[in-house]
Design goal:
With 214 residues, the chain is α/β, with parallel strands linked by helices. The chain has helices at 6-24, 37-49, 84-89, 98-116, 140-150, 166-172, 203-211, and strands at 29-33, 53-55, 58-63, 66-75, 81-82, 128-132, 156-160, 178-180.
């Protein structure tokens, strides 16, 4: 199983999510994409559901000198969400990570401002909120995103990804009311291996997708 591109993956999710909303009587949906990759998956979903589309900017917190090695994640103005076992294994503390957290929070706010401009963050309270990314590897950023939304009292919280690592999906299941993931391959190594076209999206493409909604 490989998707041609993120749009094809989004169309498959759209059908599944439309069916879920109808079966469960879920109303007033709000689609929140994790940029950049999640926005291209979320566009067909928002169209199919007739739902507004916005972004939820989440930043990975990388280990010092090894930024690709995630030790946590950050969403909006929430406290950082750390993998405490990983911090301990690397001899790090939450206090020692404060400069990294501050740098990532500045970048998070910069991207939010660039993507959304003067538009306020959407209010998820009392709504069906669908958080979408192009795949789930470790689940670090998705967990931070779901906890951020949960604090804001949605009526029903859904995580929807086209493909994900089975262990990560199992570990994150309790963070959402419903997890929709049609493909859970045992041989999962990285999200990109399940797409023929996994080209990085640009900030301009994210802005264009959001502007098309408003």
């Amino acid at each position: 199983m490989r998707f041609r591109d993120r749009a094809e993956a989004g169309r498959e999710l759209a059908g599944l999510l439309a069916g879920l909303c109808e079966r469960e009587g879920l109303s007033d949906p709000l689609v929140l994409a994790l940029p950049r990759g999640g926005i291209a998956v979320a566009e067909p979903v928002a169209r199919a559901l007739g739902a507004p589309l916005d972004v939820l900017v989440v930043r990975k917190i990388g280990a010092p000198h090894h930024e690709e090695f995630a030790v946590g994640a950050l969403a909006a103005d929430d406290p950082p969400l750390f993998h405490t076992d990983t911090l301990g294994m690397l001899g790090l503390t939450e206090e020692s990570m404060a400069p990294v957290v501050e740098r990532e929070r500045r970048e998070l706010h910069r991207r939010e401002q660039h993507y959304r401009g003067d538009r306020p963050r959407p209010d998820p309270a009392g709504r069906t909120v669908i958080v979408i990314d192009d795949g789930l590897a470790t689940g670090a950023t998705a967990r931070a995103a779901l906890r951020h939304v949960r604090r804001r009292a949605p009526a029903h919280l859904v995580l929807a990804v086209p493909v994900g690592a089975p262990d990560s999906l199992d570990s994150i299941a309790g963070e959402a009311d419903t997890v929709v993931c049609p493909h859970r391959p045992a041989g999962f190594a990285a999200v990109g291996q399940w797409y023929e076209d996994f080209e990085q999206l640009t900030d301009a493409q994210v802005v264009a997708a959001l502007n098309a909604q408003h």
